[in-house]
Amino acid sequence: MFHDFPWAKGQLRITRAALEAVFEEARQGYARDEESCGLLVGPANDPMLIDEVVPLPNRANALHRLDQAAYPRTGRTYFDLDSLKFEACVKKGHANGRPVKVVYHSHLDCGAYFSETDTDAAKMGGPAPPFPVAHLVTSVHGGAVGEFRLFVWDPETQTFLEGDISVEEP
Description:
By secondary structure, the chain is an alpha/beta fold. Helices cover about 25% and strands about 30% of the residues. It contains 4 helices and 9 strands.
């Protein structure tokens, strides 16, 4: 399955403009006291290039307000993407030759790592991710962006490992 989605294995390139947009989303999320989240896309004919950011709302705070027992965590410590919006973006990207390659989110006042919660969300309760994408995590401390790291699914170990991502300067 991963041969159809080479970006899910890492070795990605992201334009400086797209990365700066991710950083700005992370800073704005920090100002709202919630993790930012969204999708990164790029041209199908250059599968390792990411050149566009598609921000999506983090539903965690709204879900927490609706049912604190079912959703005890707020957007400060996790993100929740609308699965229907995710699916619509995937379909649109496929149809337009600009597939979804990465899910991104930020961590507030801690490092850029792939947490157990991140793993559970990516796997959606199953033994492996439901859709082969890479994951970009950005850390924000006191409103300032720190590090960013890419994570990819390793079918052999059944875990997410750090992958390679480089920045393309203009």
